[in-house]
Amino acid sequence: SLCIQLINPNTSFAMTELMAVTARQVAASGTEILAVCPSEGAPSIEGHFDEAIAAMGVLQQVKAGRDVGVDGHIIACFGDPGLLAARELARAPVVGIAEAAMHMATMLATQFSIVTTLPRTLVIARHLLHQYGFERHCAALHAIDLPVLSLEDGSGLAQQKVREQCIAAKRSDGSGAIVLGCGGMADLAHELTLELGIPVIDGVSAAVKMIEALAALRLTTSKHGDLDYPIEKTLSGRFKGLNTR
Ligand SMILES: NC(=O)NC1=NC(=O)NC1=O
Fold first, then answer.
1. Ligand 1 test: best mutation among 49, 50, 78, most atoms within 8 Å of CB?
2. Which residue from 71, 136, 143, 177 could staple onto 119, CB 3.0 to 4.6 Å apart?
3. Taking CB atoms and a 6 Å cutoff, what residues make up the pocket around ligand 1?
4. Global ipTM
5. Do 26 and 208 form a contact (C-beta atoms < 8 A)?
């Protein structure tokens, strides 16, 4: 059996729970989902500054997960904050929900669209497309222009906006698949896939299955080269011991 650590980089308990429920729905019978979020940080991640703060929390959680021997780590925020740093620290695979969803979309359509939250986070998604080499696969990016936590205010407005943006993207972008650009949208993918008749992909679910696949293939993060464990040195203050092997 597997234990996959699902790290919500923001400190919203409700969003952590929402993603955990979605992850458990798709997880194989022998897979346990250990859902966590940082003890301190930002309640939502909506820009470069929030991502920098969140990355610290991600690293602390990755270290905790490694220490209890998890079989994989999911960074469950669409900016994949701290991804490469986490891979240095980790022994097991580390998968971000943006990269997982994007990879899956490229296997299902020649072009995909992204629907995310605030317009100012669009550039973060663009940076990831560049980093992962998916620019030519992404036809367009859209934002619902609502904050991340509007997804959990119970009004249903954000969810309606996501649906509208997905319908518009299908009609106008010439893309065959849609990537949902926020961990808080994890519960919307299956219903939208059925309604729109095209793959609408949630990165949390995609990441669970990718880590299960890597574990089944007995493949894990390469420690040869730049993803080797961090260079040994004494860290100070709150980071003391964070880099120990
Ligand atoms: N683009 C986003 O909405 N990113 C996110 N911020 C969060 O707090 N969670 C996300 O997935």
1. 78
2. 143
3. 10, 44-45, 77-79, 116-117, 121, 148, 181-184
4. 0.97
5. yes
